[in-house]
Design a protein that fits this description.
Elements (H helix, E strand, L loop, with lengths): L26 E6 L5 E6 L5 E5 L3 E3 L1 H8 L5 E5 L6 E6 L6 H10 L16 E4 L8 E2 L3 E4 L1 H8 L4 E4 L7 E4 L4 E5 L5 E6 L2 H5 L8
Antiparallel strand pairs: 1-2, 1-5, 2-3, 3-4, 5-6, 6-8, 7-9, 10-11, 11-12, 12-13
């Protein structure tokens, strides 16, 4: 999310006391600029937006824009009721270090089937390719360099079941389809014709 998008233009210059403490239906977005200035933006039900600067308090939206100018925001979206983290994302291709640590902590090994390379030695692969897919915790998986290159250039792709603990379904360049369970178990479930994998006009990858 760019610094321009982080502040609502409708409320530019709104005094901090013009918006009361957000009610239970308010939605919050928190971020930290690359210049190291942490800030929190809170949308309240009457569509006003104010910014909260950590260690200082509420500031006008225009001041928040000035602080964020030239910086990249890492966005943290929270549930307005129980503060559950709903999304952590960045507009950049490379995730912030805190996001990378979170992904690698949740997935300690390469996401590739049968691969046991430590996540600490892996790239972070976008499930939905960037920039269509966001740089966010839900869209990143650790991938060793070999598996990352297979996905990026080798004709492999995979789909993650959205249900918690759901399997990954991998399709290789040759059309073999494998289902990878959360416990690491992998089994072949289908063999698709190459025309379905690459399209009728694309030659097979050999």
């Amino acid at each position: 999310m760019s610094s321009e998008a982080a502040v609502c233009p409708e409320c530019d210059g709104t005094p901090a006391d013009a918006a009361a403490t957000p009610g239970p239906r308010a939605a919050g977005v928190e971020g930290t600029t690359t210049s190291g200035v942490p800030a929190r933006l809170t949308s309240v039900p009457d569509r006003l937006t104010i910014a909260f600067l950590d260690g200082y308090g509420p500031i006008p939206a225009s001041a928040a824009r000035a602080l964020a100018a030239g910086s990249t925001w890492s966005r943290l979206v929270l549930d307005p009721i129980d503060r559950t983290v709903l999304e952590v994302s960045s507009p950049a291709y490379r995730p912030p270090e805190s996001m990378a640590r979170l992904v690698r902590s949740a997935q300690p090994y390469c996401a590739g089937p049968t691969c046991n390379v430590s996540a600490d030695s892996c790239d972070l692969n976008h499930r939905i390719p960037y920039p269509v897919g966001a740089t966010s915790v839900w869209n990143l998986d650790p991938g060793c360099r070999r598996d990352h290159l297979l996905i990026t250039h080798g004709g492999w792709h995979y789909r993650q079941d959205p249900e918690p603990g759901g399997p990954r379904t991998w399709t290789t360049a040759t059309g073999h389809v494998y289902e990878q369970q959360i416990d690491g178990d992998v089994r072949m479930v289908a063999r698709r014709p190459l025309a379905q994998v690459h399209g009728d006009d694309t030659p097979p990858p050999f």
